[in-house]
Amino acid sequence: MLKMTLLVFAVCCGTPAVPPNTGRIVNGEDARPHSWPWQISLQVKHGSRYHHTCGGTLIGPRWVLTAGHCIWPGDVYRVVLGEHDMIQQEGTEQIRDILRIVVHPNWDIDHVADGNDLALLKLDKSPIMNDSVGVACLPQAGEILSHGAPCYITGWGNLYTHGPMPDKLQQALLPVVEHSVCSRSDWWGITVKSTMICAGGDVVSGCNGDSGGPLNCLGQDGRWYIQGVTSFVSSRVCNEVKKPTVFTRISAFTEWLIMSYNNPLNDHSKPLRQTKMTFSTSVQERCKKTAALCSTTSYFTSPAV
Ligand SMILES: *[C@@H]1O[C@H](CO)[C@@H](O)[C@H](O)[C@H]1NC(C)=O
Burial code of 238-266, b = ≥16 C-beta within 10 A, e = fewer? Predict the structure, then answer.
């Protein structure tokens, strides 16, 4: 069963029709349009309008992976796929509603350094897969990238610390920093856990990305894998030396991903009351403060197993 799920999702993943521009080492640049077709824009509703709030990655026909800290109970979200230039209607955009939001049960906004900063979003229906929308590959369980492995962060995040948001999708080369280096006391120290992956952290590292978006790494098979979900950066400046960008390491969460796909709780054809829903403690705390916001059934975490 587990193997089957992985196989289904591995079909045609990580092979963009428009190859990304990887020829140059630069400090962030506009991405080639639609060369990261799994990149999505997670948008939150304010009044009658939606605003970009986080990045995310299409990892299955109806599944998007983003960061746990991107999700607030009660907020209404949508996903835009096939996006490149935020201010232009390019005709490639596909908008989907979110049917289910599954935040990792151990994610806690008050303890970011504990990790588990992940959320899975189930779309109301699959987007049409074409040259501007496709899925990224998921890494093997437990896979660890070597120090210096060339990966790319993508997103519409700030161009520089507290800078403006770019209209066009940005990409920046971020070489992986291995855990033994990233956890040195003058780097991130004990803040960074082995379930995280560090990349960047010197002058060539960029700020160009945003929360919830992918760390894209080319596999030996020539496919692009999402190895990380952007979690946090230094609060001082985003390209501080020895403070690489920290990602949730996807290869540490393969089991949770498979469990969530197969969880009957996340299958909208089954009545929800068959399975007990559990909120994480931090969500319960937040719900106490904003009780009205938590009455929505669209928000719950998967039961801790
Ligand atoms: C992909 O599908 C969408 C939705 O049908 C469409 O708008 C778009 O033109 C298609 N092609 C490309 C290259 O995006």
Answer: bbbeebbbbbbbbbbbbebbbbbbebebb
